[in-house]
Design a protein that fits this description.
Layout (H helix, E strand, L loop, with lengths): L2 H6 L1 H39 L17 H13 L21 H5 L19 H10 L9 H13 L2
Helix pairs in contact: 2-5, 5-6
Length: about 160
């Protein structure tokens, strides 16, 4: 298919529109997710301090050390949903006390990379998951509305 044919193809144009809509949605969620991440981070740090900076565990190998245990336990209390769906491998625990976005990544779907350093480098699904699964985000969004968006994202073949 030539570039000209592709540009005139209604199905292709629709996919472009959807992609642009997802980018616009992500951009619209950037400020609220960053604000929520900073608020959660401040509350956790006030309660737990900096002990996690000494963490030596390796989430990729499912190793847990005593230095991050209190942070993990507290983060789990903020998680709304099945605790087995917390993907600890998304983040680097020894950064939790310094970087709010490392805390937010706990609430995101599996596969968040080291390069995901803020809402601008996250996809729409990751931001919606943070808003849905983190209890501190209840004041910012209607959970039912975000669940509806997530449902459509995965139900369209």
């Amino acid at each position: 298919m030539s570039l000209q044919d592709r540009r005139n193809n209604e199905g292709y144009k629709n996919w472009l529109r959807v992609g642009l809509a997802l980018l616009a949605t992500r951009d619209g969620l950037t400020n609220v997710t960053l604000r929520a991440a900073k608020e959660l981070h401040a509350a956790l740090k006030a309660k737990l301090g900096d002990s996690v900076e000494k963490c030596t565990c390796n989430p990729k190998k499912k190793e847990e050390c005593k230095d991050c245990k209190s942070w993990r336990q507290e983060l789990a209390t903020h998680y709304k949903g099945n605790k087995s769906q917390i993907y600890w491998t998304n983040c680097t625990p020894n950064k939790w006390s310094k970087e709010p976005w490392e805390v937010a990544k706990v609430f995101m779907p599996r596969g968040q990379s080291i390069g995901n350093i803020g809402p601008e480098t996250s996809d729409t699904s990751a931001l919606l998951n943070f808003l849905v699964h983190c209890k501190c985000c209840n004041k910012y969004v209607s959970v039912k509305a975000t669940q509806k968006v997530g449902h459509f994202q995965y139900s369209i073949p």
